[in-house]
Amino acid sequence: MSMAHDEAAARKPRKPSGSEAGDDDAAPDRRALDHEAEEVAVAVMAASRLLVAISARALASIDDSMTLPQLRALVVLESCEPLKLAAMATTLGVNPSTAMRMVDRLEAAGLVDRRTNPASRREVVLNLTDAGRSLVGKVMAHRRAEVGALVARVPAEERAGLVPALRALTRAAGELGVDPFDEVRRLGGLVTDPLAPGR
Asked: Model's pTM, two decimal places?
């Protein structure tokens, strides 16, 4: 085969293979999916900010001296009590000293009961007091009412689509292992109440 023929062949555009052609055809679909996913992410973030604002208003209506991080600590306790201090810090994503200062304030406000675990003197066991449990209940009820009023303002034909969409998001979070109390269970932060009567 001559050198001239080889050069001509090299200059001739290479015809894409079947898989490459398929990739080119699929590119617009991928771009459309990426754009749709970005729109969903923006909408979810906006809804998240709205829910945080609703939570802040609900808390302020019950106790304007408390912060949202403190409320979150109470909600964690309400869901997982009795709870070790170290496990609470991990669940909240803060260091133990920060969690300790938060518990100091909540205990001073009469919302949290902190005691040494008789079975392990180095461990601190946390429980909600009746006042703490009552506060969480009132804030959650206020938030639920405001969310309910907001949902009622959504047109019925659009409201019907919210439930499957939100359930799909919740299922996806479960598949990703997004569980706010997973670290508590993994670390053994849930404890059998050593301070219960009869123990």
From this structure: 0.65
Cα angle value 160/164/165 (rounded, 5°):
100
What tokens does 25 get?
């055809």
Q: Which residues contact 114 (CB under 8 A, 6 or more apart)?
A: 85, 103, 107, 124, 125, 126
Q: Which of 32, 53, 51 is nearest to 43 (CA)?
A: 51
If 0-12 CB within 10 Å is exposed, 13-18 middle and 19+ buried, where does residue 117 land? middle
Written as six digits, the tokens of 28 are 């617009």
Q: Token pair of 176, please? A: 């990703």
Per-residue model confidence as pLDDT tens digits over 31-82: 666 777 788 888 888 988 988 898 889 889 888 888 988 998 998 888 887 8
Contact 91, 78 (CB under 8 A): no
- Indicate the burial class of 107 (C-beta count within 10 angstroms; 0-12, 13-18, 19 or more): middle
Sheet holding 112-117, edge to edge: 83-84, 120-128, 112-117
CA-CA distance, 122 to 87, in Å (whole number)?
A: 14
